[in-house]
Amino acid sequence: MSDQKKPKRRDFLFTASYAIGAVGVGASIWPLVDQMNPDKSVKALANTEVDVSSIEPGKSITVLWRGKPVFIKRRTQEEIAEAKAVNLEDLKHPEKDEDRAKDPEWLVMLGVCTHLGCVPLGDKGEYNGWFCPCHGSHYDTSGRIRKGPAPTNLEIPKYEFVNSNTIKIG
Amino acid sequence: MSDRNYTPSSKLGKWFNDRLPLLTLRSHLTDYPTPKNLNYWWTFGAILTFCLIAQIITGIVLAMHYMPHADLAFESVEHIMRDVNYGWLIRYFHANGSSMFFLAVYIHIFRSLYYGSHKSPREVIWVIGMIIYFLMMCTAFMGYVLPWGQMSFWAATVITNLFSAVPFVGESITNWLWGGFAVGSPTLTRFYSLHYLFPFLIFALVILHIWALHIPGNNNPIGIDVKQPSKDTVPFHPYIVLKDLFALLIFLLLFAFFVFYSPNLLGHPDNYIEANPLVTPIHIVPEWYLLPFYAILRSIPDKLFGVIAMFASIFVLVILPWLDTSKVRSAIFRPLYKQFYWILVLDVLILGYMGAMPAEGTYLLIARIATAYYFVHFLIILPVLGKKEKTLPVPLSITEPVLGGSPNPDMVKKKIFYN
Amino acid sequence: MKNFIKLTFLIFFSLTFLSKSAFTEEKKKLLSTNWSFKGYLGKFDRASLQRGYQVYAEVCASCHSISYLSYRNLAEEGGPEFSEEQAKAIAANFDVIDGPNDDGEMFTRPAKLSDKFASPYQNDKEAMASNGGAYPADMSVLIKARSGGADYIYSLLLGYEDPPSGVTMDDGVYYNKYMFGNNIKMPNPLFMGLVEYNDGTEATEEQMAKDVVTFLAWAAEPHLEARHKIGFKVIIYLIIIIILAHLSMKRLWSRIEPDV
């Protein structure tokens, strides 16, 4: 055992060494954490281009985007009118149809129920839109929640028309 | 050695410590009296602990991306190298980390051989260490199979085929190991499972290894027991902690050169070719740290006896504490043993080199001589030396040589102390 | 100290054996050139990578796949660094199989950035059958899969010569000075002027060999530049912290060992 007591004052050398050492430890930990972030091959699939030229009015397709289903529906004039006619005060999650579908003919939204994540069924439900069979949420022709436990409307992802036949999602 | 006098300073600490004495353990570890004359060859225990933990962490991270199936394994490793954020870094760290782990373990083992750390009362530490070493070799062997390159596949085939040498049940054992009639995907998945498991077994054994060490305490370069803890030892923290840290950083510098500038130097190019059961590489070679055993295996013409010789070469190390009969621990005071020690080192290096060469002609002859000498060293030379060698007079204590009064004035000059 | 020197010597002694190939009987002195990516500060020459891609695409890709590379890699940092538009255009030249569509059929479509490089053959067997029984090796990690690396591939490409007198080659087998066994089923792929480089560089055999090998070296190690850059920082950092640790250790131990 040492006969001397440890000096109470920390030498600057020790403090500086600890500090610089801590920087090294932190820098070493970062790759171990970052490796769990989405890797480049996953990020490369972060956007998807979809050819919509063959979709008739009233029909919809489902595509996979970032591992989740996306509904692309070409709405009929009746469905558009129905969506616009809804009084915002009747909505649990008030959103105007124009804000959800820039081009009213095309409705692009994530096919994931905002309650607990099941995929709602199209052309079903009391509001002529979608119906989620898991816990009974009803969505209207704009994908807004009208009845049932879901808290918010079906999510609209970022998308744009790169030309008249192609939508790029993401 | 255990500190029963420690009382935690806070009430919460005392409450907890009464129920699970972790704070007492911490105090024991920090105050643990360590001989003050340990040289840098004693830092490799800490370096090995770092290597084990680093391999476990990088391994667990790699396991998040690796696919253990024959059709996907090679591709998943390329995915890690190309797409996963810092995947290339973690993979090269893990692959070279394996080599660094073995470099450290060989230095650690040879330190023990030189300074007599395997001798009474440290026999159990030594045996546990040998079990750890054996498990390390199994882990490394299985890990090398996982990338599913040509060397992965064929090394697995050659080594698992050895078990068919067992009389009567050999073929059944081999098929049982393979999960089939040849190395294939079932082999890969079970090796993956065990490769993940074994390091945790090693970790448990390391705890036992350190616990067993703390009973008698560390050996030291002059091999003399601690006589007066207050004069001969220092508390582990901060003196030895800081010294171990310094040595670890230098070790990391060497490690960094491999990882960043020659990451494939210690590997084999054939392992960047996807496994092909129909094409055998021209020369099948294991990783460098297994080469001496490979040389011993191939130097015996008979398959079964080759396997026996290979396992015997490890077994002979396990029983070393009972083969080395010398009463004097450290080679510093054993001039004849010292010579034979360095000849053994040379012999092992020769075996390693021969393991990388084709097993024919002069290479095979040298490998056979080196194999024979290896067993002669342990089974004949050591027991005889212990009885017959005239050792140098040993100092009275660790501090004695420096403070004066030692029967050996050379000790005072040499300052075999803190270097 | 003496023992430390002994150990260092032992390690470097062992390393010299490792850095040689184990099979010195077969070793010929390989051709080499001034690779920009060799050495501690090695980087890739972007122009050479782009030319090398052109050689791969126009000469090699008809037989050799490079299937672990993705088209987006052509636009990523550390590589040829084509613009995203250029890389998209390159990808669109190739067709890949996708599907099944809603009718249950597989279909072909132009490749996107996210796709892996298309292979010239549908599978290995077709590749072998089309090349006299020899499989044209996938080039993704070819540089790392051959002893001698970049120098070896470079030498091989430039190593075609007439067989020594008295030796006749079978049909479809060619003599190459550097190939193991000297017999190779690939005919000399490079001829003077074979490729017309987009950047106007003269396409000599040496130039094409150098560029395509540089491209393949990048394909095998796309993160080489990041690795060298980070490595440099790590080593400088370690040297600094080693000095600090050493000083701290001396300071600490001086409390009990006055002569330290």
Description:
The complex is a heterotrimer of chains A (170), B (419) and C (260). Chain A is of the alpha+beta class and 170 residues long. Helices cover 24% and strands 26% of the residues of chain A. Helix content of chain B is 65%, strand content 1%. Chain B has helices at 11-19, 22-31, 44-63, 73-82, 87-115, 123-145, 150-161, 170-178, 185-214, 229-232, 236-261, 291-299, 303-318, 320-323, 335-356, 361-388, 400-403, 409-414; strands at 33-35, 233-235. In chain B, helix 4 (73-82) packs across helix 5, helix 6 (123-145) packs across helix 7 and helix 15 (335-356) packs antiparallel against helix 16 (361-388). With 260 residues, chain C is mainly α. Helices cover 40% and strands 5% of the residues of chain C. Chain C has helices spanning 2-19, 46-60, 84-92, 124-129, 149-158, 205-220, 224-253, and strands at residues 95-98, 107-110, 174-175, 183-184. Chain C is extended, with a radius of gyration of 24 Å. Chains in contact: A-B, A-C, B-C. At the B-C interface, helix 4, helix 5, helix 11 and helix 15 of B face helix 1 and helix 7 of C.
By helix and strand content of chain A, what is the structural category? alpha+beta
By DSSP (H or I, 4+ residues per run), the number of helices of chain C equals 7
C-alpha end-to-end distance of chain A:
66 Å
Mean pLDDT of chain A, rounded to whole units? 89
Strand order of the largest sheet of chain A: 5-6-7-8
**Total strand count of chain A, please?**
10
Alpha carbon gap, first and last residue of chain C = 15 Å
Oligomer: heterotrimer
Mean pLDDT over the full residue set of chain C? 89
Helix-strand pattern of chain C, N to C?
HHHEEHHEEHH
Measured by residues with Cβ under 8 Å of the partner chain's Cβ, the largest interface is: B-C, 51 and 51 residues
Spell the H/E element sequence of chain A: HHEEEHHEEEEEEE
Helix content of chain C: 40-55%
- Strand order in the sheet with the most strands of chain C: 1-2
**Low-pLDDT regions of chain A:** 1-5
Instruction: Outline the low-pLDDT stretches of chain C.
Output: 19-26
Helix coverage percent of chain A? 10-25%
Over all CA atoms, what is the radius of gyration of chain A? 26 Å
What fraction of residues of chain C sit in β-strands?
under 5%
Strand count, sense and closure of the main sheet of chain C?
2 strands, antiparallel
